[in-house]
Amino acid sequence: VYSTGLEAEMLNAMVSEVKQNDMVGFKKYIEENEDRLGAYNVEYNYNIQPLVYLADTTDRITPVNPNPLVDAYYQMLSYDMNNMSSSYSQLMSMSTDGMDIWTLLYGDQQLLDQQYDVLCGHWPESMNEVILVVDDYNEVTGMTLYGLGLRDPDEISNVFADLMAGKSVEVQSASYDYNDLLNMQFRVILQTDLYEFDKTENCWKDRSRNDEFMADKIEDGVPVHISGIVRKKAGTPTGALMAGTICYTQELVDHLLDEIADTEIVKQQQAKPDIDVFTGYEFEDHEDVTIDDVYAYLDNMSEAEFAQLQGLFSKMYGNSISPDNVIEALNDMNDDDLVAAVAPSMLESVSLDDAKAFAATQQGQGALMMLLAEQTGTDPNPALLEGLDDDTLLTLYQGIMESQITADAIRAKIAGMSEDEVNALAQSLNPAKDVESMKKALATMDEDMLISVFKDQILSQSTDNTYDGNLQKLGLRDPESPFAIQIYSESFEAKEQFEDFIQEYNDKQAKEGDEDAAIEYTDYIGILLSSVTKIINMVSYVLIGFVSISLVVSSIMIGIITYISVLERTKEIGILRSIGASKRDVSHVFNAETFIVGLVAGIIGVLITVLLDIPINMIIEKAAGAPDVAFLRPVYAVILVAISVLLTLIAGIIPARLAAKKDPVIALRTE
């Protein structure tokens, strides 16, 4: 058995083929040749996602874009991903890409008018207006409802949890009036609005988890509302917009780019390209980090940074205790470790109502009185319980409960737990379940080790630890350097012409000695169509073969029938020749007959085809939803009739010549 090393060749090929096109140069070339691109609509994508929130922040802050399902998804998986391999965790993270419902409105207005019907309202006319796209049945997915803020993102956590537990999820449906959707109000803020300058630490901090701070930013954001609802026209195979999306205008993106470029945090980062505005340190220089910096980072980290830290915990602590093995894991602990691990979570479940119920019993009053006497250094006295406030009562009750928690009691309680209670206990033992749990877990680590891990694993990865990475995170984009360029052509012929346009650009770069600037692309539609075309051509060739055989056979039959006619009319031929008809005249008689036969046959065939098109189109439209698929153009009808006449004339040439060559005397004697 020999190893081929094929996997190494595949990896080398994959890496070597990764290339980023020169969008700057190609954009400039497009602008220089705008007069040649009248048949195309060119859109520039700068890979920026507007931060959209519901305008009403009275009850809560409701983000709708980027998709709130992503955060809910990570929150639900925060425990389970700690138990996955890092590669599988990354794969699960990548699966949330493409879940954004708010997208850029692509295509020019003429193209959109051709493809879509406006059900209510109108197309966006300013940056403050967006359009909602529904499918052929006026439906949108639940994802769209979350993207509109019509459903609570917290609901999805329960849905994911049920799915992970193998439970069935009930499909929810709802209907909304057009006017209810058109009256929805949103606010768009800048990426830079998420940060506030901290004078104490001399750096910018993420305040996106501060509701009061975010409410003020949202109130000052760009107001946006749904101006209309559109649906793809019947018979349109594909549209420029995806059903279930909310589309904003390029004008809004341009406004956001201009505003971001004028913000203080961006100006400060540009003024000090060597200093990371998010940490206050020089890039790649974190030698002055202290333990206070670590805890300050924990207090102000964003959801994304929290998810990153959870991934780090999975590496530090290995596989956390899961619901499947929690009982076995706890039983393997010694008594002291078991009490230390479980007691805090058990005490967290103690409530004030439990404390009051305990204090209402005679046994509880006695225990509380003895504990108070011990703490105050006095004799037990019922007067000590008078005027006891709620906080003190709860603290005393927790102390009593803690003194009664033993390893044997814990094991007995765990043995009698239900599956749900075991799951809850396992979750409570997860050191990365929330910020406070993380702090408690980190407090057990050596400070020097903790600072080292923080510098190597957190600071080195934040914002890619580069000047350009920070500007990207803040949403700054160069108008001359688009992330992608979308080209919409009027037809497939125009698409092929644009490929020639790209080739001209590549040839120009090659002549200038800058071959790396050449544009590389893959024409997926062309590849797909070429495959379909090959299949269609193969079928066509087979059909043409059958038709050719049938035409040859029919021509032979016409020739035979004409020859039989000549034999039956031999005496008539002799009479015609005897009264002065020439050989050509006799030939014309039979040619005229074959011409008439071909003409009548062609017309009948065309009429039958036109009549059959009616039921065929009705059946296809009902079955596939595609109207008027089968039809015969007048030009093709004339061509088919001409072919029919030509074939009959050719088939009758030999019999006609035989008739013309017959001897008149012999013909007259023939019976």
Quick recap:
The protein has 671 residues and is an alpha+beta fold.
Topology diagram in text:
Elements (H helix, E strand, L loop, with lengths): L5 H11 L6 H10 L7 E6 L5 E4 L8 E3 L2 H10 L8 H9 L7 E3 L4 H7 E6 L7 E6 L7 H6 L6 H11 L13 H5 L2 E5 L5 E4 L4 E4 L4 H9 L2 E11 L13 E3 L1 H12 L2 H8 L19 H10 L2 H15 L8 H6 L3 H14 L3 H8 L2 H15 L13 H15 L2 H9 L3 H10 L6 H9 L3 H13 L7 H7 L10 E6 L2 H20 L12 H45 L1 H9 L4 H42 L9 H27 L3 H6 L2
Parallel strand pairs: 4-11, 6-10
Antiparallel strand pairs: 1-12, 2-3, 2-7, 5-10, 6-11, 7-10, 8-9
3D structure, described in words:
It is a single chain. The chain is α+β, with helices and mostly antiparallel strands and 671 residues long. It has 4 domains: 21-45 and 486-521, no CATH class; 48-66 and 99-153 and 171-262, no CATH class; 321-429, no CATH class; 532-669, no CATH class. Helices cover 56% and strands 9% of the residues. The chain is built from 29 helices and 12 strands. The strands form 3 sheets. Strands 2, 3, 4, 5, 6, 7, 10 and 11 form an 8-stranded mixed sheet that branches. The longest helix is centred in the last third of the chain and has 45 residues, at 524-568. The protein is elongated and about 160 Å long. The protein starts with 5 loop residues before the first helix and ends with a helix.
Number of domains: 4
Instruction: Characterize the largest beta sheet: strand count, sense, and whether it forms a barrel.
Output: 8 strands, mixed
Helicity range of the residues? 55-70%
Gap between N and C termini, in Å? 89 Å
Taking all Cα atoms into account, the compactness measure Rg is 41 Å
Number of helices: 29
Segments where pLDDT lies below 50 for 5+ residues?
3-18, 75-98, 315-321
What percentage of amino acids are in beta strands?
5-15%
Q: What's the β-strand tally?
A: 12
Question: If you average the pLDDT, what whole number results?
Answer: 77
User: What class would the helix/strand composition place it in?
Assistant: alpha+beta
Shape: elongated
